[in-house]
Here is the input.
Amino acid sequence: MSRLAEYRKLEQQLAIQLAELESMKSDSSLKKEMEFESKLRALLGEYSYSLKDVISLLDPQSARRVPASEPKASSRKPRQVKTYKNPHSGEVVETKGGNHRTLKQWKTEFGSDTVESWLTN
Here is the structure.
């Protein structure tokens, strides 16, 4: 598509959106909503309240927070222990992640693919 054709297409889309915007500006229900929002925000500012405060007043259950004493439920399953055995030295490393110092040294020395082949479980 040429740049000119792309320009004309965008120009048409903009004209359509501007027409929709103008029709919405004359919509009485939109005007009522906008007036309500501005009055509500002014009222909240007058009493130093936030929207969260109003929600907690109207529906305390939805605003309930978990106390610090309750542990959060983890959505992540625990990591499995991986055991690597170096066939050259016979040394065994057990780790749950890849940030083990000896494992990093092995990967630097022998290569990542080779060390991953040493995985025993």
User: Anything to note?
Assistant: The two ends are 56 Å apart (CA to CA). Residues 85 and 91 are 6 Å apart (CA to CA). The first helix runs from residue 3 to 25. The mean pLDDT is 88.
